[in-house]
Design goal:
By secondary structure, the chain is an alpha+beta fold. It has 4 helices and 8 strands; from the N terminus they run E-E-E-E-E-H-E-H-E-E-H-H. Helices cover 22% and strands 47% of the residues. It has a 4-stranded mixed beta sheet with strand order 5-1-7-6. Strands 2, 3, 4 and 8 form a 4-stranded antiparallel beta sheet that branches.
């Protein structure tokens, strides 16, 4: 089984009971998530979060605090044509480290990313989150922001 590690940085931006989200276009369809993404080689995670928020939403942000680090693990197998072209039983044990920051919008204008991993961005009422098709990262980021666990570990955040 192939093993893959992805380290990414994300921002929780909350203003006036609204949260800034980006709509991720993934394997299983479109889901709302925190703006952010993969860290480039040699890039500091804070710089990656700032860059990714700008790419996905059009906003410039200031990082206010490190909220925590989330660790997730998933298993993927190739499907359809990709599977037929790959060796039988090709699967990936994927490990994601998600560094989550609190951030404040300091400039820019809301716009959508073009030709990227997201296709929309929006301010969403916190009261409406339960109605959205969203990734678990949204709830994880909000839990970290609300509880501010001293270790920054999401299990403590709930």
């Amino acid at each position: 089984m192939k093993r893959s590690l992805r380290v990414a940085a994300y921002a929780v931006c909350v203003e006036s009971d609204k949260i800034l989200l980006a709509r991720w276009v993934g394997r299983e369809g479109k889901k709302w998530t925190l703006p952010g993404g993969g860290i480039d080689h040699g890039e500091h995670p804070q710089d990656a979060a700032v860059r990714e928020v700008t790419e996905e939403t059009g906003y410039a942000v200031r990082i206010d605090a490190l909220l925590g680090i989330d660790s997730v693990r998933r298993h993927f197998t190739r499907t359809g044509l990709r599977r037929a072209l790959a060796k039988a039983g090709n699967a990936t044990d994927w490990h994601g480290l998600r560094i989550v920051y609190a951030a404040t919008v300091i400039g820019g204008e809301l716009r959508f990313e073009e030709n990227g991993s997201t296709d929309m961005a929006a301010w969403v009422d916190l009261a409406d989150l339960s109605t959205l098709d969203r990734t678990d990262l949204v709830d994880t980021g909000l839990a970290l922001a609300r509880r501010k666990p001293p270790t920054g570990r999401t299990e403590t955040a709930g």
